[in-house]
Amino acid sequence: MLNKKFILKKISQGLLHILFWCAVLLFFTYFFGVGSHNFNDTLVYSLFLMPITIALTYVSIYKLIPDYLITKRYLRFIVYSLYTLIISTYLVMVSIFFSLIYLSDFQYTNMNPITRNILFVMTGIFLVTFIVSAFKLMKLNIIASKKTKTLETKILETQLKLKEQELKYLKMQIHPHFLFNTLNTLYGFALKKADETPEMILKLSNLLDYLLYQVDKPLVSLQDEIHHIEDYITLEQMRFSDTINVQLTKSISSECIEIAPMLLIPFVENSFKHGRILNGSLTITIHIEANTNNIHFKIKNSSVKDYSNSANGIGLDNIRKRLELVYPNKHHLTINQNETDYTVVLSITPQSKLNHV
What we know:
Shape: rod-shaped
Strand content: 5-15%
Number of domains: 2
Structural class: alpha+beta
Strand order of the largest sheet: 2-4-5-7-6
CATH architecture of the largest domain: 2-Layer Sandwich
């Protein structure tokens, strides 16, 4: 089947070439027949020039342009073009002698007016070669552009896949000790048959559901992200009881605001992990304000001057990388620290509509 298509393609290309050279022959007959009344002599002379023109054209489009010009081997292109010009000029001179000897019986006055001048003859030949070469060069440029575009597309697709893999990796870098510690606390509550055990199991179940099934989505409802934060806070409060004081305030103008999943929780987790107990309590204040144009997130926790976001927690580099991947040029992150507080302020431009599949 492929061979048949290939053969048909070659046949069609051959027919097109034949039709083109027939058109060139007609052009030569008209061009060299200006001022002459002998159509037969003009046709014979045109036929004599056809092999020269065909050879010159094919050398140009199948050798000089693709092998030397396109590949930027300019010196060889110039040298071989000069060789071709010299040979073609010699053959044109032979054609003039052919016209003088064979067609005009050595009578210069009987020669076709145009064929007496080598410049006119060469103009006719090189005009055809130049036009065909221009089309060939344009075709090669189009093919090269398509290949470049295809290569760029593949590179972009590869980069996108790498970014997706990096993003998944960054999403999953949630502190593993939280789950371990929560399960230990849950085990202790179960041994005591504490009343908080069912609620703790429910909160942990909601948290795991979010981690396992929502994290792969590009965007989730901001309300879902906040509910996840609230479950996280509740679990931590159950673990540490009276030593934690958390205040969460929110002002959400629309339920259709979306955000990348697991984007805010690292800041909350860092506040619990790296915050310091001052005056008998770890104080954390969280404020989330959002509309269709902006999401403003602020979290502040009690701290001491040597507070640092160590590599053992969800590092700031991780968070910054993810923000660059998800919200390039659409976010602003500031971190301030003083003697008693550590404050993080994040502003991002959200997606205003939920994408339901």
